[in-house]
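User: quick one, fold this
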Amino acid sequence: MNEADTCRAYVLPRLNAAGWDDDVHSIIEQKTFTDGRIIPMSNKIKRQRQKRADYLLRYTRDFTIAVVEAKADYKLPADGLQQAKDYAEILGVKFAYATNGRGIVEYDYITGLERELDTFASPDELWLRLRTGEGLESETLSQQLLTPSYMGDKVPRYYQEIAINETLKAVLKGQKRILLTMATGTGKTLVAFQICWKLWNARWNNAGKYRRPRILYLSDRNILVDDPKDKMFAIFGDARWKIENGQINTSRQMYFAIYQAIAESANHPGLYREYAPDFFDMVIVDECHRGSARDESNWREILDYFQSAYQIGMTATPKRDDNIDTYSYFGEPIYTYSLSQGIEDGFLAPYRVHRVMTNVDAAGWRPQVGETDRYGRVIPEKDYQTRQFEREVALRQRTRAIARHLTEYLKKTDRLAKTIVFCVDQEHADEMRRELNNLNSDLTKVYPDYVCRVTAAEGDIGRGHLSRFQELETASPVILTTSQLLTTGVDAPTCKNIVLARVINSMTEFKQIIGRGTRVRDDYGKYAFTILDYTGSATTLFADPAFDGDPVRTLQMEMDENGETVGSQVVQSDEASGEDEDSEGGSVSGIGDSRQVKERDKYYYDGGDVEVVADAVYELDADGNRLRVVKLTDYTAERVRSIYPNAAALRAQWADPQQRGEIITLLEEKNISFEALAAATNQPDADPFDLLCFIVFSTPLHTRRERANSAHRKLHEAFKNYQEEARIILDTLLEKYAEFGMAQFKLPDILKVPPISQYGNVREITTIFGGSEQLREAVQQLQVLLYTDAA
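Assistant:
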């Protein structure tokens, strides 16, 4: 019996017999729990295989407690145990089972014991073992843990379930400081909502009384509290209250506030003091890495004042020097879901990096002696580098060159692709907006708001631009220029381009910025995004060992003074590869940059010529610690040689259609496409096999026509036992291959295409070969003949 037969005949009945058969203790069969990693190709995408468990055992609708992997009955029961354990560790469950339908093996993560069993454990037995192991023997606490989640449109993904349940367990066991680290785009708000919903309905509170808890949801920008309050938390209805404008209300349960509205300032002593220190049972701190836990921060006073409350910090950034205070305050995260894991699971979009360098960024810029700026001021004579541009000296031609290059890039890809440009300051963002507007005047006539600046200076107008940018069905604005505002808390699910026109010094900030593009939207064809890096920030920060999501592809580009690309190299990594700003300030309006540009605090030079001069692709080195520049062909050679030592080994598998398909899939997973290789070598007519061998093993390069002609000469002798019509059809297949490539050997589709179709329908052509199996063998033999030796 195969695996499916084993499941139907043996496994399911035995699970039912153990008590896994009612609406409470449910069985989820063939549960797919990842989407499959997205692999961007040259002009398409594909997904890797999804992870799928044979059975998930749920003690309640929301609480998965065990995973079961079944194998065919002729295999050993333990053959599936490692896979079951792998899935159990991913899913955060404590019990893993493997079975062949007859024998059963259990692995218990609480005791570390592996046992052979005659029957599956019952739901109540596993629940009791879990409660005991987790220290939740109290019936009240265990029932609060099992409080049903809210079943709305968004069903929690597996990692969100883990985050929710781990947080609940920590709270119920009395852990007062809790930290969740989850990459941008992985649904921290949904996790926070479900935690609140469960505790609210369980009537859990700090005092142990029978009442609903009072929860404070804190962040540093209005957009980060208004959006959850008005959308996901709307189900709480009148239980919600936002603390603002000096107004206090003590009769609600779900409170929302930004630090600035309730913290102490020069104008008031601190609105938070209007609430008793023990008023809140729980405080949830969103984006907690941005200063909330710093000892010197006045925001810390709020947390210290409500120190008796359970406090949950939520961040997208792993521990680093620039957020160490957060981890010191909240402790190590009880659960982490990283950017790289999100990309691996296919829930987050991978990205490409275009490293674009102007001549002044490459060599620096030095003014002539006595050179003056647009205001007649003498510019200090020294070498200015990328870090000084737009801070000490503003080069209009550099901004213009970047805008011109970006415009040309969008023209070659998609001019309506949502794009965020991160500039040095608000003034720089305005200069960039103006240049982009004028370079796209054909579109701005149709879409007056095609390019908009969104910074503190725009206020409500900026909020309107941002809101329309975020909407799925709104065509414009297409490009937003900003300095720091949009680094955090902006959910732009269709954003396809992140542009770095300023230096990013902080890994935390870098991950926040690229998090603006990590959302996947299948319904809008958004599977990946591009980082256009004009300052070298991305390249530098990718090389940091602490970065946990490697780029799919980095493309370093050269551009001339007209902003046109004059050269490029692609650098790739084996693996595909998030969140927000490091400023404490944020405006009370929630839409402010933390830096204000003082009038003429830098020099402005409008002359000179600036052009793009560099372009390259990066991959991680063998140690995985830094990025190195390689050409696409070099990358391909290195990757293929690691699998096949010589051309003969590659040819032995290539001739077989099934094995050839596996090779192509393997190469695609490493981001190697034959279309890109043909373009890189300028060999559009080369046979894919010969193209690979030419690049990897330096063998002679043959075209498809040369291979087809060689096979033509050998075809009659090789197929002398076939009737004449069959040989003619095979000969025609070779002609199709010579003209269009390997796809022409696909059965039965090719049989429906002229001139082969003139020999009849698929069944009639099959009869010419003596049957479908004989036809398949003939076509396979033809492909072996094609690659028997060099043309």
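User: anything notable?
Assistant: The longest helix spans residues 396-412.
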